[in-house]
């Protein structure tokens, strides 16, 4: 039997013996739950989870985005939970508390001493690293209990931090900053702060947290899709701190991600966007065409990539870059039995120069349709990330947010709204810009939506 296996077996036995005596004492204690003012409200967590489920059921977010956001909610619940050290457990039998305290100290102390005697820390770290889906090694000094994650739409189309973590109040943020002062090398606090800063658009502070986390990843783990995910998240925040510019360190991080995993979707998209902005359309096509091949299982996303490819080809051929909507590939999604009317709305979305707005590197475009005097909920919606403008879009029955046999044609007239956001949230919040137009059955082709409002 290896020392590690023996260590784990003895640890389990000792813990079982220790808690066999401790748990009855704790269960008999008088505990006042009102003292736990620092614990994240369970009701708030349930509310956030309910909202997340509602968005998923409505089709606003995808399956992978839902799963990642759900994990982040759980992380936030754990990170905000804290226990007041002044809390006491009252019991009439003081001797039992002394026994419990002795066991609480003795059992972990013995386990640690026993491990240092027969254990092999490097081997244990390697085991943890193999089970860590993000390739971040753990050690007694640099344990990353909750690795930085990045939302994935597929193995080839990663989206950076699509869902924002539950909103942190100023007081909770201040508490996290105090924790970091006390434990400057705590990766969990660094990760939570990185996300909190990004949520508040404090990108420089967020990038600083990512930089510290990156410096602690061993060279042996700087490879694979998981590491590429981490780098893409870092590059996204860093580019946002530079007003959306990918030049310099952000694009170098993107290239590092592609070196770690050449088929990383988000990095391929960012690299193509970088070269497109540099007017190097051949290089942009190299990355986007590879991404398009990898997106075969996601026809709608592949169509968006193809629109960018066509635009780059038009630029390369010396054209104006404005592609006719008739040249855009039609959707390859097979219509369902309930939505089988071949009707679509096509057009181009551009940004008014007078707005003086430059979309960040990883901004998101939402296109949604509502009836002028109907309910606030969209009837159809389209979500795209990391694109260039002007952008040619197609909205058809496959983008309907419900099933019922009706077509977009039956709902005319419709108000189309295009909105660019930094967080991936479709709501009209600070920092987003919008533009709208009304379409009818006789005017739904080659429509022009100009984004001109903040």
UniProtKB/TrEMBL annotation:
The membrane spanning regions, by residue number, are 6-26, 99-118
Primary location class:
other
Which residue intervals make up region (Disordered)? 128-150
State the compartments where it is located.
Answer: Cell envelope
User: Which InterPro entries does the record associate with it?
Assistant: C-type_cytochrome_biogenesis (IPR051263), Cyt_c_biogenesis_CcmI (IPR017560), Ig_CycH (IPR056412), TPR-like_helical_dom_sf (IPR011990), TPR_rpt (IPR019734)
Boundaries of every Cytochrome c-type biogenesis protein H Ig-like domain copy: 346-452
Q: Name one GO cellular component term.
A: plasma membrane
> What GO terms in the biological process aspect are recorded for it?
cytochrome complex assembly
List all Polar residues biased stretches.
139-150
Looking up PANTHER family in the UniProt record yields: CYTOCHROME C-TYPE BIOGENESIS PROTEIN CCMH
- What is the name of this protein? Cytochrome c-type biogenesis protein H Ig-like domain-containing protein
């Amino acid at each position: 039997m290896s020392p590690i296996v023996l260590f784990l077996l003895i640890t389990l036995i000792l813990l079982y013996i220790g808690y066999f005596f401790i748990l009855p004492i704790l269960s008999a204690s008088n505990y006042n739950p009102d003292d736990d003012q620092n614990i994240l409200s369970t009701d708030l967590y349930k509310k956030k989870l309910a909202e997340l489920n509602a968005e998923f059921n409505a089709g606003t977010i995808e399956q992978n985005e839902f799963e990642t956001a759900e994990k982040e909610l759980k992380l936030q619940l754990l990170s905000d939970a804290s226990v007041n050290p002044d809390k006491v457990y009252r019991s009439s039998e003081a001797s039992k508390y002394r026994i419990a305290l002795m066991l609480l100290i003795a059992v972990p102390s013995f386990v640690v001493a026993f491990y240092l005697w027969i254990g092999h820390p490097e081997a244990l770290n390697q085991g943890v690293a193999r089970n860590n889906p993000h390739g971040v090694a753990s050690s007694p000094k640099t344990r990353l209990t909750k690795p930085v994650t990045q939302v994935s739409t597929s193995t080839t189309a990663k989206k950076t931090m699509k869902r924002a973590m539950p909103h942190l109040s100023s007081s909770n943020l201040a508490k996290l900053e105090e924790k970091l002062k006390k434990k400057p090398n705590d990766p969990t606090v660094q990760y939570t702060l990185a996300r909190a800063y990004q949520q508040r658009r404090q990108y420089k502070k967020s990038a600083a947290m990512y930089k510290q986390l990156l410096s602690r990843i061993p060279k042996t783990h700087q490879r694979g899709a998981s590491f590429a995910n981490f780098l893409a998240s870092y590059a996204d925040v860093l580019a946002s701190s530079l007003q959306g510019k990918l030049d310099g360190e952000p694009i170098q991080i993107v290239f590092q991600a592609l070196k770690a995993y050449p088929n990383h979707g988000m990095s391929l998209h960012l690299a193509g966007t970088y070269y497109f902005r540099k007017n190097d359309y051949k290089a942009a096509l190299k990355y986007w065409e590879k991404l398009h091949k990898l997106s075969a299982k996601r026809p709608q996303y592949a169509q968006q990539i193809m629109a960018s490819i066509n635009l780059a080809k038009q630029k390369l051929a010396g054209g104006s870059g404005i592609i006719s909507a008739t040249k855009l590939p039609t959707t390859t999604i097979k219509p369902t039995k309930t939505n089988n009317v071949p009707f679509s709305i096509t057009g181009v979305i551009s940004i008014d120069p007078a707005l003086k707005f430059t979309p960040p590197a990883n901004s998101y475009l939402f296109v949604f349709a509502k009836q002028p005097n109907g309910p606030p909920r969209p009837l159809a919606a389209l979500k795209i990330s990391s694109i260039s403008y002007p952008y040619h879009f197609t909205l058809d029955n496959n983008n309907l947010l419900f099933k019922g046999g009706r077509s977009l044609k039956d709902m005319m007239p419709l108000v189309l709204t295009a909105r660019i956001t930094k967080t991936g949230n479709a709501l009209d919040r600070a920092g987003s810009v919008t533009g709208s137009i009304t379409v009818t059955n006789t005017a739904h082709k080659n429509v022009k939506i100009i984004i001109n409002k903040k």
